[in-house]
Fold this sequence. Notes:
Elements: H1 2-59, H2 62-71
Amino acid sequence: MKKLYFIVFFISFHILLIGIKINKQSQFIKISYERQRLEQKKIELLQQKQALTNDLYAFQNPALIKQFAQDVLNMEPLNLKQVKRITTS
């Protein structure tokens, strides 16, 4: 009778260990996929940051600012004759 309990306990214990091992593997795979997804997101964000930095430096260029003002905002260059002096009295 003790032998039968020992065999049942032994088999149950090994089934439990197999279940724990399967759970461990599935958690490892889940974490690996999550890590891979986050690494892809990191690469995407770094590329976006680089593109925005390049745009920032481009927009700080005075020639580009002048071109943007003339093309998009329909501004014209200001002549010195168009400037009026304002005096306070």
